[in-house]
Write a structure and sequence with these properties.
alpha+beta; 2 domains; 3 helices; rod-shaped; PH-domain like; four-stranded antiparallel beta sheet
Length: 130
């Protein structure tokens, strides 16, 4: 790379002529669009896990051995999934999606809103300059 970096953090570098993501190099003139968004929360799996956890609790409270074992498994699995969903709500994933004229797209994901905004702005600045 001979031109100066506009944005350089982690495995992402934006210069006046290219975007580097990991070991992949993309020329800026091949970029069609750049969008920034928060990854949507999966409400359907959240509701299914709540229903599974409640059904598991009902199985535990029935005091029958088969229902007790099934209920313990359901509460463990659904409880783990609910914990992960809670963490996703507290710390969402932000995506910078880059689409190329060839139809290819890359999605650069981070948990930091500030990082994603700065990358998005740097790509737009580089695209305006090229």
């Amino acid at each position: 790379m001979t031109d100066q970096a506009i944005f350089r953090e982690g495995d992402v570098i934006v210069t006046a002529s290219q975007l580097v993501h990991g070991n992949s190099y993309y020329q800026l003139h091949t970029i069609k669009s750049v969008v920034f968004f928060k990854e949507p929360f999966d409400v359907k799996s959240f509701v299914i896990n709540i229903i599974g956890a409640v059904a598991g609790l009902a199985g535990i409270l029935s005091f029958k051995s088969v229902c007790l074992i099934g209920g313990l498994l359901a509460v463990a699995v659904c409880g783990f999934n609910l914990y992960n969903d809670y963490n996703e709500l507290q710390n969402p994933t932000f995506v910078v999606a880059v689409t190329f004229h060839s139809g290819e797209s890359i999605y650069i994901k981070r948990r930091s809103l500030d990082w994603a905004k700065r990358l998005h702005d740097a790509l737009h600045t580089a695209l305006r300059g090229s």
